[in-house]
Amino acid sequence: MTPVQITVGVGAGAKYLGVDHVIDLGPLHPSAHGAYRLRLGVEDNVVTEAEPLVGHLHRGAEKLFEVRDYRQVLTLANRHDWLAAFCNELTVALAVERMTGMDVPPRAVRLRMVLCELNRMLAHLVFLAPLTRQLTGEPTAGTTAAVQGREAVQAVMEQASGGRIHFMANRIGGLREDVPATWIPNVRALLTTLSELLPAIRVSTVDSTAFRERHAGLGVLSHEAALALGVTGPTGRASGVDVDLRRDGEHLAYQDFQPVVGTDGDALTRVGCVVGEIELSLRLIAGILDELPSGPVNLRLPKAVKAPEGSVYVWTEAPLGISGVHLASRGEKTPWRLKLRTPSFNNVQALSALLPGTAVADLPAVLGSFAVVVGDIDK
């Protein structure tokens, strides 16, 4: 049989309509948050070749950084991956602080860690919510739990920063301001709430027999392919890539811990790693709050922050993987070059390796287990 090429859009309503057609369900409308296409070669209802096509709505974020001073760039830093807004701000702030030799106050470092873990759980809960639905699309108790958990995390993030999506809590030299007096008790209450909600999410996903049968063995990304393609975060760790910059990095003060690492690299393991990440974040936040120091949360800065001539590369562990910033300066108050290494841009390449051999009927399950943010691709 001659292979038929099918273009499947990744978005609401995307589905397979038959091997006798050339179908283009993507990219989505430009007014959406972003779009990418999957060009699939299909033979006998099985994917034989996959090519992700990106760049339909290029944002030009890196060029915009070059015409704004170091205080202003943080406004842009949280917008390419809106589910990791705080983590993106932090990576850029850390690059400038390292370039200028700033020593951030210990309380700011610890609060940044708490806010990073909250942001991580927020991103993972958004990803898990649709996976908890039944095959018919009906919501379950796990769906309600995921939505309630997301709203609860957003509430404490909003209390600390004033924003629900674009937090703008980081500043060069620390945080914009200290958290309110009631915030720490509210975070502890949130940890209890999420601990109570997680069992329902697990029952609807990785602890569900039907879910396990639906996802086990599908969309396998091998350890070798993950390393070759630079896949990181829960997706990479599901394939045995034991890298987590919270443990292996140098920029934040995490204690020794073991990240959630799988071996099978299939759709079920990827979802399991995301659920495990939430449980890990709950433990990390509790430990950080127990050792939270007092003191200031920022440094007094000159009117214009100027980085010395030179370059630096800083990377952190964002919810979807490694987020890196290469900052090059000519001694001015604006970056000469600010290059982003975003996890979604690297991770989306893995679809070309894991989709071949997948039955067309299984595409929704495989693609649903693979989290990317399109703005993070078209940065």
From TrEMBL:
Keyword Transferase included in the entry's annotation: no
Keyword annotations: NAD, Quinone, Translocase, Transport
All residue ranges annotated as the NADH-quinone oxidoreductase subunit D domain in the record: 143-301, 304-379
SUPFAM superfamilies membership: HydB/Nqo4-like (SSF56762)
Keyword Kinase carried by entry: no
Gene3D superfamilies on file: Cytochrome-c3 Hydrogenase, chain B
Pfam families reported for this sequence: Complex1_49kDa
UniProt family annotation: Belongs to the complex I 49 kDa subunit family.
Protein's recorded name: NADH-quinone oxidoreductase subunit D
Organism (species): Kutzneria chonburiensis
